[in-house]
Amino acid sequence: MGESTVIPLADLRYAAVAPRIPEQLRAPTGLLADRLGRPLRDLRISVTDRCNFRCSYCMPKDVFDRDYTFIPHASLLRFEEITRLARLFVAHGVVKLRLTGGEPLLRKNVEALIAQLAALRTPGGEPLDITLTTNGSLLARKAQALREAGLKRVTVSIDAIDDAVFRRMNDVDFPVADVLRGIEAAQRVGLAPIKLNMVVKRGTNDDQIVPLARHVRDHFGPGVVLRFIEYMDVGATNGWRMDEVLPSRQVVERLSAVFPLQRLPATAEGETAERWAYADGGGEVGCISSVTQAFCGDCNRARLSTEGKLFMCLFASRGHDLRALLRGGFSDEQIAAAIGEVWGGREDRYSQLRALVPPAPAAGERRVEMHYIGG
Ligand code: SAM
Ligand code: SF4
Ligand code: SF4
């Protein structure tokens, strides 16, 4: 697999390996497959590890406090570096790019990056599906500029419609009204479709499932799709417990008691959400059951961290240091071949294995945090 050396880095947070450059450089064919036969279609790019929220399931306040050291600016991939890598991933078959973080709208001038990415084309000449996941706090201000830069659609996280519950979930006392204004702005400028993500934590915000669904139906209509995400055991800081996971099956039961639902077929290969339509034609909702129904079997996603490490799985503890190649003078051919090697050796399927053997990271390593590699 080419994982030979574990390299010490000045700003090392998670273990990283130097990707191996194969001696025979084979040009990307777009047909790359990992060891389980899964293609590479989706690249998630974390543009910052910083965030203005402190959602307890992601960046609990007692860990990510004033003393926490975020990645220094010089260590971040520059926009040109991200775009160069994105181009190589596209040559390998990637058709979808998602900017995430941390809070991606905190990255200065992120619109400029979107404009660079929007200019990329697949080998067949098609534009890419470019999207962004945001907590919505800065969306009202930024929606227009994002759209003009070439962003097509957006996913906004919203964990409650009740203001008190929402403030408790973000743990920085941020009002839900500002996020709702952000969603309205996104709709107004034509970002579509808009998806909303609600992470459901049993006993904390599960009483918001029906009220939030009702609000979305009444105020935004069928163009906005609410998705319920099972609370995941990602990272090592959120104190995850299985009894705080509300299985999607129960989300569907609770919703359908108020709004009858009909199951819809998946629209895309590797789609994570199970889709349900409101029987009265009022749009659809989705359930992302990462804990109770693993979807590793067709996981076609790679993740690029803020400082240029490539992760093969949300639950990985070791990345592959692409920044070292970018800044080490390697050619596009060499970097593309190294990416091909890494993906070719991939056999990650954490969620499928979770129930069998909870795999602890190796000694001296820790699982990567969500705000660092993005959701
Ligand atoms: N800050 C942005 C946001 O919140 O939308 C983007 C980054 S955030 C890490 C991406 C997504 O991951 C969000 O929808 C968030 O709710 C979700 N997420 C974070 N921690 C999670 C966890 N432990 N379980 C399930 N989803 C989680
Ligand atoms: Fe920030 Fe998003 Fe994590 Fe919440 S989920 S702390 S908004 S990065
Ligand atoms: Fe993909 Fe890893 Fe999630 Fe499975 S656990 S779906 S391999 S990111």
Strand content: 15-25%
Strand order of the largest sheet: 1-13-12-11-2-3-4-5-6-7-10-9-8
State the order of secondary-structure elements, H for helix, E for strand. Answer: EEHEHEHEHHEHEHEEEEEEHHHH
Largest sheet, in brief, is: 13 strands, mixed
How many β-strand stretches? 13
Domain tally: 1
How far apart are the first and last residues' alpha carbons, in Å? 25 Å
CATH superfamily: Aldolase class I
| Small molecules bound | S-adenosylmethionine, iron/sulfur cluster
Shape: globular
Low-pLDDT residue intervals, each spanning 5 or more residues: 1-11
| Second-tier CATH architecture | Alpha-Beta Barrel
- How confident overall, as mean pLDDT? 92
Radius of gyration: 20 Å
Helix content: 25-40%
What would you call the structural class? alpha/beta
CATH-assigned fold name: TIM Barrel
CATH class placement: Alpha Beta
Helices, by number, come to 11
Set down the secondary structure blueprint.
Blueprint: E1 15-17, E2 42-46, H1 79-91, E3 96-100, H2 110-118, E4 129-134, H3 139-149, E5 154-157, H4 163-170, H5 176-189, E6 194-200, H6 209-219, E7 224-230, H7 248-256, E8 261-264, E9 274-278, E10 284-288, E11 301-304, E12 309-311, E13 318-321, H8 322-326, H9 332-344, H10 350-354, H11 370-373
Parallel strand pairs: 1-13, 2-3, 2-11, 3-4, 4-5, 5-6, 6-7, 7-10
Antiparallel strand pairs: 8-9, 9-10, 11-12, 12-13
Helix pairs in contact: 1-2, 1-9, 2-3, 3-5
Residues 51, 53-55, 58-59, 101-103, 135, 157, 371 line the site of one iron/sulfur cluster.
